[in-house]
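Quarterly update from the structural biology core.
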Amino acid sequence: MTKSGVTKSRDRRSDLPCDRAKDVDAITVGYPSMFELMWDLQGMAENNAAVNRTLRLNRDTMLAAAAIYQEMYGSVDEQSGEVSVPATFEVLHFIAWKPGASQPRPLERGSGTVSLKDLGSVIGGAS
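Predicted structure, tokenized:
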């Protein structure tokens, strides 16, 4: 069985200082049933890692969970008539760096000599 209905969105987070950046990709994948989703989660090592978990999951519990998941979140593709359940994965991308000794430091706040409202005349006069 194949996955269907992959959608992707990107969110650039600007709430971090300038020496770190974080991007988040939200990828929504439509699975034929909860069992294919669980198979992929296990392949990504995203299955249950709780210390107090049971080692085995009862078949009746899995079938009931699949039925509830399908009822609550399932959708039918209007064109193909395919039934799917969505799962959204957030992929986080981080980049950070340590300022080097030769990297210029920002000046003290308020130490500027040119007002931003006069910047157009300063730049225009330079050419």
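Helices lie at 34-43, 59-73, 119-126.
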